[in-house]
Write a structure and sequence with these properties.
Layout: H1 17-33, E1 38-39, E2 45-47, H2 48-52, H3 59-62, E3 67-69, E4 75-78, H4 83-93, E5 99-108, E6 120-129, H5 134-151, E7 156-162, H6 166-182, H7 189-197, H8 199-202, H9 208-214, H10 226-241, E8 247-248, E9 260-268, E10 277-283, H11 287-290, E11 298-304, H12 305-315, E12 327-331, H13 336-347, E13 352-354, H14 361-370, E14 375-379, H15 381-385, E15 388-393, E16 399-403, H16 407-415
Parallel strand pairs: 1-5, 7-8, 12-13, 12-14
Antiparallel strand pairs: 2-4, 3-4, 5-6, 6-11, 7-9, 9-10, 10-11, 14-15, 15-16
Helix pairs in contact: 1-5, 5-10
The structure holds adenosine monophosphate (AMP).
Adenosine monophosphate (AMP) is lined by residues 81, 109, 111, 117-118, 121, 123, 255, 277-280, 302, 304, 306-307.
């Protein structure tokens, strides 16, 4: 028989790690819903042209799309990110503004798989559409910052820059291209290739030779319009008011072409520099219009779930929760009583597990131990004849006999009252 493995760049998220993912998402939802963001669930694939708006010259579009013709001949793509989908949804449904949404879920990019870089990876993110106010930039950044703090991360750096408006950016790209072209000989062949496609991307190079050239490159700051500059100064002031530390980096351009004005990235100091970006975002004031909607400003961020958890591991925070149940039911008669008692405990709002296959008392008690249960309920023929069971405190090993009908009351006294899962008559 063939033995199958996950495809390169994909992983099984096994228990208890998957439980950690769930609480990651729950903490994120709680953080952003507290600021009025509503959950949106866009489709996982859509018209590939939607994603082409990210920028034809970006690696994401030019090299990494999982696109194909479906059986109806439509050219579709698995989403490589969700901002374009959210903007497409805005253009399609025209909700009233400000429109503030959050999302979570997998994205797909055909990348060279390695630690911290996957072909299927998850992101959580927010997008806020219809507001020019620089205070919104501050709100968006502060929500990511708050979230990292709630995870317990302390080695996160906020790096920020302004890319100006479309005109500013175009003038800067021209100046940068000229500078890089006149220093071509000192660049690596990879950077020379990138230069032909998109000079801004050269600034992302982590190769030593390129870094030396980049150090002398013109920066965007002197190309910013007065409005873009004022906007940026107000954002920085707002961050100071909220006591969020930041580093300005005039070479921060980020991977996607649609960014305007405020651009930012979160870097983990606990991770290797090649894969240390754990999230990022910025303004994308022209994007909705390119997707057929009205001219609408927008700003958002996406945080890499996989990579943020690697940063948590590196800092030793936000570990996988220990899975445990409240009660483990041991039935040494024939298992039928365990069926009824486990069911009743679960309906009363507690968690309960049991053993199967009529295993020995010893084997069942071993399972009870492994389950992490606070109490074992032990049903023997002798006790059952008088409708009783034994309840064992797994930590202290103290045992007592109680009536089976009083089990839920016992749990309420010892574990606190729970909301029943099913209202019993
Ligand atoms: P981007 O959508 O490219 O702005 O990326 C935002 C964040 O998503 C990055 O900072 C990473 O944390 C994460 N990310 C992007 N691509 C990948 C990938 N291939 N594997 C894992 N995480 C990724």
């Amino acid at each position: 028989m063939p033995s199958f493995q996950t495809s390169p760049g994909t992983r099984d998220i096994m228990p208890p790690d998957a439980a950690r993912w769930r609480s990651f998402n729950a903490i994120f939802a709680d953080t952003v819903e507290a600021a009025g963001y509503g959950c949106i669930i866009p489709p996982i694939f859509e018209d590939a042209a939607v994603f082409h708006r990210i920028g034809e010259a970006t690696d994401v579009v030019a090299k990494e799309m999982y696109d194909f013709d479906d059986k109806g001949g439509r050219h579709v793509s698995l989403r490589p990110e969700q901002t374009a989908s959210v903007c497409r949804a805005f253009a399609q449904h025209r909700p009233t503004t400000p429109w503030k949404v959050w999302y979570t879920g997998p994205n797909f990019r055909y990348e060279k798989a390695q630690a911290g870089r996957y072909r299927q990876f998850d992101q959580v993110g927010i997008e806020a559409l219809g507001v020019n106010d620089s205070d919104l930039d501050v709100e968006v950044i502060s929500l990511a910052w708050k979230f990292y703090q709630r995870l317990g991360l302390s080695g996160v750096q906020l790096v920020i820059n302004s890319l100006g408006d479309e005109g500013d950016r175009a003038k800067y790209v021209d100046a940068l291209r000229q500078y890089l072209q006149s220093n071509q000989d000192a660049l690596t062949p990879e950077a020379r290739q990138t230069l032909d496609r998109n000079p801004l991307r050269v600034l992302d190079s982590k190769r030593h030779a390129d870094i030396e050239v980049i150090a002398g490159a013109p920066t965007i700051k002197s190309f910013l319009s007065i409005e873009a500059n004022n906007h940026f100064e107000k954002v920085l002031n707002g961050l100071r008011m909220l006591e969020i530390p930041f580093h300005q980096n005039e070479y921060l351009v980020r991977g996607l072409d649609y960014y305007r004005r405020t651009t930012f990235e979160f870097v983990s100091t606990a991770l290797e520099s090649a894969q240390n970006a754990i999230g990022g975002g910025g303004r994308y004031d022209g994007l909705v219009q390119t997707l057929g909607g009205p001219d609408t400003p927008g700003i958002g961020f996406a945080l890499g779930l996989d990579r943020t958890l690697l940063a948590c591991d590196a800092e030793g925070v936000f570990g996988a929760p220990k899975s445990s149940v409240d009660v483990f039911v041991v039935d040494v008669i024939d298992g039928r009583q365990a069926l009824v008692v486990t069911n009743r405990i679960q309906d009363a709002g507690y968690s309960a597990d049991r053993a199967f296959d009529a295993r020995s008392m010893k084997a069942q008690m071993k399972s009870a131990d492994r389950s992490g249960a606070r109490f074992a309920v032990i049903i023997t023929s002798e006790e059952f004849e008088s409708n009783n069971c034994i309840i064992r405190d797994m930590a202290s090993a103290q045992q007592q006999t109680i009536a089976i009908k009083d089990l839920v009351d016992f749990l309420a006294r010892n574990l606190g009252a729970k909301i029943p899962r099913r209202l019993t008559p």
